[in-house]
From TrEMBL:
Entry annotated with the keyword Glycoprotein: no
Matching PROSITE patterns: GNAT (PS51186)
Keyword annotations of the record: Transferase
Pfam family, one: Rv0428c_C
Entry's Gene Ontology molecular function annotations: acyltransferase activity, transferring groups other than amino-acyl groups
Keyword Transferase included in the entry's annotation: yes
Ranges where the N-acetyltransferase domain occurs: 189-319
Descriptive protein name: GNAT family N-acetyltransferase
Length: 319
Protein backbone atom coordinates (compact mmCIF):
# COMPACT_ATOMS: atom_id res chain seq x y z
CA UNK A 1 0.00 0.00 0.00
CA UNK A 2 1.08 3.57 -0.45
CA UNK A 3 3.17 5.38 2.13
CA UNK A 4 4.09 9.00 2.78
CA UNK A 5 7.38 8.60 0.91
CA UNK A 6 5.41 7.86 -2.26
CA UNK A 7 4.15 11.46 -2.39
CA UNK A 8 5.79 13.21 -5.34
CA UNK A 9 6.18 10.01 -7.37
CA UNK A 10 4.15 8.65 -10.28
CA UNK A 11 1.77 5.88 -9.30
CA UNK A 12 -0.94 3.81 -10.91
CA UNK A 13 -4.18 3.29 -8.99
CA UNK A 14 -6.77 0.63 -9.74
CA UNK A 15 -10.03 1.76 -8.17
CA UNK A 16 -13.49 0.27 -7.84
CA UNK A 17 -16.00 2.34 -9.81
CA UNK A 18 -19.07 0.14 -9.58
CA UNK A 19 -20.57 -3.35 -9.36
CA UNK A 20 -22.03 -5.37 -12.23
CA UNK A 21 -23.62 -8.76 -11.71
CA UNK A 22 -22.01 -8.99 -8.31
CA UNK A 23 -18.53 -8.26 -9.61
CA UNK A 24 -16.55 -5.06 -9.09
CA UNK A 25 -15.79 -2.79 -12.04
CA UNK A 26 -12.32 -1.27 -12.11
CA UNK A 27 -10.74 1.82 -13.63
CA UNK A 28 -7.03 2.67 -13.71
CA UNK A 29 -5.54 6.12 -13.20
CA UNK A 30 -1.93 7.20 -13.69
CA UNK A 31 -0.41 10.37 -12.28
CA UNK A 32 1.78 11.96 -9.65
CA UNK A 33 0.70 11.42 -6.05
CA UNK A 34 0.40 14.94 -4.62
CA UNK A 35 -1.54 14.22 -1.43
CA UNK A 36 -2.06 11.21 0.83
CA UNK A 37 -4.39 11.35 3.83
CA UNK A 38 -6.16 8.81 6.00
CA UNK A 39 -9.29 9.09 3.84
CA UNK A 40 -8.19 10.09 0.32
CA UNK A 41 -5.34 10.20 -2.14
CA UNK A 42 -4.97 12.84 -4.84
CA UNK A 43 -3.30 12.36 -8.22
CA UNK A 44 -2.19 15.01 -10.72
CA UNK A 45 -3.06 13.37 -14.07
CA UNK A 46 -2.87 14.70 -17.62
CA UNK A 47 -6.64 15.23 -17.50
CA UNK A 48 -6.61 17.10 -14.19
CA UNK A 49 -6.51 16.36 -10.48
CA UNK A 50 -8.24 13.17 -9.32
CA UNK A 51 -9.25 12.69 -5.68
CA UNK A 52 -9.88 9.02 -4.81
CA UNK A 53 -11.38 7.83 -1.50
CA UNK A 54 -9.20 5.15 0.06
CA UNK A 55 -12.21 2.85 0.24
CA UNK A 56 -12.34 2.77 -3.57
CA UNK A 57 -8.65 1.84 -3.97
CA UNK A 58 -8.25 -1.81 -4.99
CA UNK A 59 -4.52 -1.63 -5.70
CA UNK A 60 -1.91 1.13 -5.98
CA UNK A 61 1.79 1.05 -6.72
CA UNK A 62 4.63 3.30 -7.74
CA UNK A 63 5.62 3.11 -11.41
CA UNK A 64 9.13 3.59 -12.85
CA UNK A 65 10.07 7.19 -13.65
CA UNK A 66 8.86 8.47 -16.98
CA UNK A 67 11.38 8.58 -19.79
CA UNK A 68 13.60 11.61 -19.88
CA UNK A 69 12.39 14.35 -22.20
CA UNK A 70 13.91 14.34 -25.65
CA UNK A 71 16.72 16.72 -26.52
CA UNK A 72 14.28 18.63 -28.73
CA UNK A 73 11.88 19.05 -25.80
CA UNK A 74 14.65 20.37 -23.54
CA UNK A 75 15.81 22.83 -26.20
CA UNK A 76 12.25 24.05 -26.84
CA UNK A 77 11.63 24.69 -23.15
CA UNK A 78 15.02 26.36 -22.64
CA UNK A 79 14.28 28.72 -25.55
CA UNK A 80 10.81 29.47 -24.17
CA UNK A 81 12.43 30.25 -20.80
CA UNK A 82 14.98 32.52 -22.49
CA UNK A 83 12.15 34.36 -24.24
CA UNK A 84 10.44 34.80 -20.87
CA UNK A 85 13.58 36.28 -19.22
CA UNK A 86 15.12 38.33 -22.06
CA UNK A 87 18.58 39.80 -21.53
CA UNK A 88 18.98 43.24 -23.15
CA UNK A 89 22.44 42.41 -24.56
CA UNK A 90 22.44 39.33 -26.76
CA UNK A 91 24.64 37.65 -29.33
CA UNK A 92 24.99 34.27 -31.02
CA UNK A 93 27.76 31.73 -31.33
CA UNK A 94 26.31 29.45 -33.97
CA UNK A 95 23.15 28.21 -32.24
CA UNK A 96 24.42 29.11 -28.76
CA UNK A 97 23.02 32.22 -27.05
CA UNK A 98 25.22 34.78 -25.30
CA UNK A 99 23.36 37.02 -22.82
CA UNK A 100 24.23 39.92 -20.52
CA UNK A 101 22.16 42.14 -18.22
CA UNK A 102 24.60 44.14 -16.09
CA UNK A 103 25.11 41.10 -13.86
CA UNK A 104 21.46 40.91 -12.75
CA UNK A 105 20.63 37.19 -12.26
CA UNK A 106 22.57 34.24 -13.58
CA UNK A 107 20.01 33.36 -16.22
CA UNK A 108 20.29 36.74 -17.97
CA UNK A 109 24.11 36.82 -17.78
CA UNK A 110 25.07 33.39 -19.05
CA UNK A 111 25.62 31.54 -22.28
CA UNK A 112 23.00 28.94 -23.24
CA UNK A 113 24.82 26.10 -25.06
CA UNK A 114 22.02 24.42 -26.97
CA UNK A 115 22.57 23.43 -30.57
CA UNK A 116 25.77 23.71 -32.62
CA UNK A 117 28.26 26.51 -31.78
CA UNK A 118 29.66 26.22 -35.33
CA UNK A 119 33.19 25.44 -34.11
CA UNK A 120 34.96 22.85 -31.93
CA UNK A 121 33.87 22.86 -28.29
CA UNK A 122 37.15 24.20 -26.85
CA UNK A 123 37.14 27.08 -29.35
CA UNK A 124 33.49 27.81 -28.54
CA UNK A 125 34.22 28.12 -24.83
CA UNK A 126 37.24 30.31 -25.57
CA UNK A 127 34.89 32.61 -27.50
CA UNK A 128 32.41 32.65 -24.60
CA UNK A 129 35.16 33.69 -22.19
CA UNK A 130 36.28 36.51 -24.53
CA UNK A 131 32.70 37.77 -25.03
CA UNK A 132 32.11 38.19 -21.31
CA UNK A 133 35.62 39.57 -20.68
CA UNK A 134 34.93 42.29 -23.26
CA UNK A 135 31.95 43.32 -21.11
CA UNK A 136 33.82 43.20 -17.84
CA UNK A 137 31.76 40.28 -16.55
CA UNK A 138 32.70 36.79 -15.36
CA UNK A 139 31.89 34.18 -17.97
CA UNK A 140 28.94 31.97 -17.01
CA UNK A 141 27.30 29.08 -18.83
CA UNK A 142 23.92 27.50 -18.08
CA UNK A 143 24.23 23.73 -18.55
CA UNK A 144 20.90 21.94 -19.21
CA UNK A 145 21.30 18.34 -18.10
CA UNK A 146 21.78 15.80 -19.52
CA UNK A 147 21.63 17.62 -22.88
CA UNK A 148 24.81 19.72 -22.44
CA UNK A 149 26.79 17.22 -20.35
CA UNK A 150 29.78 17.34 -22.78
CA UNK A 151 30.01 21.11 -22.22
CA UNK A 152 30.00 20.50 -18.47
CA UNK A 153 32.83 17.98 -18.80
CA UNK A 154 34.96 20.50 -20.71
CA UNK A 155 34.26 23.15 -18.05
CA UNK A 156 35.29 20.67 -15.35
CA UNK A 157 38.63 20.34 -17.09
CA UNK A 158 38.98 24.13 -17.07
CA UNK A 159 38.28 24.37 -13.36
CA UNK A 160 34.97 26.24 -13.58
CA UNK A 161 32.84 26.48 -10.43
CA UNK A 162 29.24 25.25 -10.12
CA UNK A 163 26.23 26.94 -8.58
CA UNK A 164 23.48 24.86 -6.90
CA UNK A 165 21.32 22.78 -9.29
CA UNK A 166 18.08 24.35 -10.51
CA UNK A 167 14.97 22.30 -11.28
CA UNK A 168 13.00 23.24 -14.38
CA UNK A 169 9.52 22.08 -13.44
CA UNK A 170 6.39 21.79 -15.56
CA UNK A 171 2.72 20.92 -15.28
CA UNK A 172 -0.19 20.73 -17.73
CA UNK A 173 -2.53 23.61 -16.92
CA UNK A 174 -5.43 21.16 -16.86
CA UNK A 175 -3.78 19.35 -13.93
CA UNK A 176 -3.59 22.37 -11.66
CA UNK A 177 -6.13 22.47 -8.83
CA UNK A 178 -9.09 24.79 -9.00
CA UNK A 179 -8.85 27.98 -7.00
CA UNK A 180 -9.65 27.51 -3.32
CA UNK A 181 -12.69 29.43 -2.09
CA UNK A 182 -11.65 32.86 -0.92
CA UNK A 183 -12.04 33.65 2.73
CA UNK A 184 -14.48 36.46 3.52
CA UNK A 185 -12.63 39.72 3.27
CA UNK A 186 -9.63 38.22 1.45
CA UNK A 187 -7.78 40.81 -0.63
CA UNK A 188 -8.10 40.20 -4.38
CA UNK A 189 -5.30 39.23 -6.73
CA UNK A 190 -4.71 41.98 -9.28
CA UNK A 191 -3.06 41.42 -12.68
CA UNK A 192 -1.39 44.39 -14.38
CA UNK A 193 0.50 44.80 -17.63
CA UNK A 194 3.32 46.79 -15.97
CA UNK A 195 4.90 46.50 -12.52
CA UNK A 196 4.15 49.18 -9.95
CA UNK A 197 6.91 50.92 -7.99
CA UNK A 198 5.96 48.85 -4.92
CA UNK A 199 6.07 45.64 -6.98
CA UNK A 200 9.56 46.51 -8.19
CA UNK A 201 10.66 47.33 -4.63
CA UNK A 202 9.73 43.83 -3.43
CA UNK A 203 11.46 42.27 -6.45
CA UNK A 204 14.56 44.36 -5.74
CA UNK A 205 14.60 43.15 -2.15
CA UNK A 206 14.55 39.56 -3.32
CA UNK A 207 17.06 39.95 -6.14
CA UNK A 208 19.44 42.50 -4.60
CA UNK A 209 18.59 45.68 -6.51
CA UNK A 210 17.14 46.44 -9.92
CA UNK A 211 19.45 48.02 -12.52
CA UNK A 212 17.96 49.33 -15.75
CA UNK A 213 18.79 46.01 -17.41
CA UNK A 214 16.61 44.24 -14.86
CA UNK A 215 13.58 46.30 -15.85
CA UNK A 216 14.16 45.18 -19.44
CA UNK A 217 14.32 41.53 -18.36
CA UNK A 218 11.06 41.88 -16.43
CA UNK A 219 9.01 43.80 -18.99
CA UNK A 220 10.36 43.16 -22.52
CA UNK A 221 8.06 40.22 -23.21
CA UNK A 222 5.12 40.37 -25.61
CA UNK A 223 2.70 38.67 -23.20
CA UNK A 224 3.42 39.40 -19.54
CA UNK A 225 1.35 40.01 -16.40
CA UNK A 226 2.34 41.14 -12.92
CA UNK A 227 0.27 39.72 -10.07
CA UNK A 228 -0.05 41.58 -6.79
CA UNK A 229 -2.03 41.43 -3.57
CA UNK A 230 -2.58 44.38 -1.23
CA UNK A 231 -3.60 44.13 2.43
CA UNK A 232 -4.46 47.19 4.51
CA UNK A 233 -3.18 49.40 1.72
CA UNK A 234 0.26 47.76 1.51
CA UNK A 235 1.58 45.40 -1.15
CA UNK A 236 2.24 42.01 0.48
CA UNK A 237 2.62 39.54 -2.41
CA UNK A 238 3.87 39.56 -6.01
CA UNK A 239 4.34 37.17 -8.91
CA UNK A 240 5.08 37.39 -12.63
CA UNK A 241 3.68 35.42 -15.54
CA UNK A 242 4.71 35.26 -19.20
CA UNK A 243 3.44 33.35 -22.22
CA UNK A 244 6.16 32.30 -24.66
CA UNK A 245 7.26 29.36 -26.79
CA UNK A 246 4.70 29.87 -29.57
CA UNK A 247 2.11 30.60 -26.84
CA UNK A 248 2.43 27.12 -25.35
CA UNK A 249 4.27 27.91 -22.13
CA UNK A 250 3.13 29.96 -19.16
CA UNK A 251 6.27 30.93 -17.26
CA UNK A 252 5.97 31.68 -13.54
CA UNK A 253 8.64 33.67 -11.74
CA UNK A 254 9.29 35.98 -8.78
CA UNK A 255 6.57 34.45 -6.61
CA UNK A 256 7.12 36.29 -3.33
CA UNK A 257 4.95 36.74 -0.24
CA UNK A 258 6.18 39.00 2.54
CA UNK A 259 6.72 37.16 5.86
CA UNK A 260 3.78 38.78 7.67
CA UNK A 261 1.36 37.59 4.95
CA UNK A 262 2.52 33.99 4.57
CA UNK A 263 0.46 30.85 5.25
CA UNK A 264 -2.67 32.49 3.87
CA UNK A 265 -2.63 30.80 0.47
CA UNK A 266 -1.60 33.97 -1.39
CA UNK A 267 1.08 32.24 -3.51
CA UNK A 268 -1.39 29.64 -4.71
CA UNK A 269 -4.01 32.29 -5.49
CA UNK A 270 -1.55 34.34 -7.54
CA UNK A 271 -0.49 31.22 -9.45
CA UNK A 272 -4.14 30.40 -10.12
CA UNK A 273 -4.83 33.91 -11.41
CA UNK A 274 -1.85 33.74 -13.75
CA UNK A 275 -2.87 30.25 -14.90
CA UNK A 276 -6.34 31.52 -15.80
CA UNK A 277 -4.78 34.38 -17.76
CA UNK A 278 -2.28 32.10 -19.48
CA UNK A 279 -4.93 29.57 -20.46
CA UNK A 280 -7.05 32.37 -21.93
CA UNK A 281 -4.13 33.30 -24.21
CA UNK A 282 -3.74 29.70 -25.41
CA UNK A 283 -1.04 28.32 -23.08
CA UNK A 284 -1.35 24.62 -22.28
CA UNK A 285 1.54 24.07 -19.85
CA UNK A 286 3.29 26.02 -17.11
CA UNK A 287 6.95 26.02 -16.16
CA UNK A 288 9.04 27.51 -13.40
CA UNK A 289 12.62 27.31 -12.19
CA UNK A 290 13.49 26.64 -8.55
CA UNK A 291 16.72 25.79 -6.76
CA UNK A 292 16.77 22.15 -5.75
CA UNK A 293 17.80 23.11 -2.19
CA UNK A 294 14.80 25.46 -1.75
CA UNK A 295 12.73 22.80 0.01
CA UNK A 296 9.70 24.97 0.97
CA UNK A 297 9.24 26.17 -2.62
CA UNK A 298 9.76 22.69 -4.09
CA UNK A 299 7.14 21.34 -1.67
CA UNK A 300 4.69 24.11 -2.60
CA UNK A 301 5.06 23.47 -6.33
CA UNK A 302 4.86 19.69 -5.88
CA UNK A 303 1.53 20.19 -4.13
CA UNK A 304 0.33 22.08 -7.21
CA UNK A 305 1.34 19.16 -9.44
CA UNK A 306 4.68 20.38 -10.84
CA UNK A 307 7.24 17.72 -11.74
CA UNK A 308 10.86 18.12 -12.84
CA UNK A 309 11.28 18.28 -16.62
CA UNK A 310 15.06 18.66 -16.48
CA UNK A 311 17.78 20.28 -14.41
CA UNK A 312 20.38 22.92 -15.15
CA UNK A 313 23.56 24.03 -13.43
CA UNK A 314 25.14 27.45 -13.83
CA UNK A 315 28.91 27.22 -14.27
CA UNK A 316 31.16 30.18 -13.45
CA UNK A 317 34.66 30.73 -14.84
CA UNK A 318 37.45 31.02 -12.27
CA UNK A 319 38.61 34.58 -11.74
Amino acid sequence: MLREQDVGHRIVVRRIVGIREGRPLFSDALGELVELSETHLTLATDEGRLRVPRGEVHRAKRVPPARRPTAAAVVALELAADEAWPAPTRDRLGDWLLRAADGWTGRANSALPVGDPDRPLPAALDAVERWYADRGQPAMVNIPLPLAAPVGAELDARGWDSRPPVLVQTVPLASLPAAAPERPGSPPVELTTAPSADWLAIAAGRKGGLPDAARHVLTAVGQVRFAQVHADGALVAIARGTVTGHSRWLGLSLIEVLPAARRQGLAGRMVRALVDWGAATGATHAFLQVEQRNTPAVTLYRGLGFTTHHTYVTRVAPR
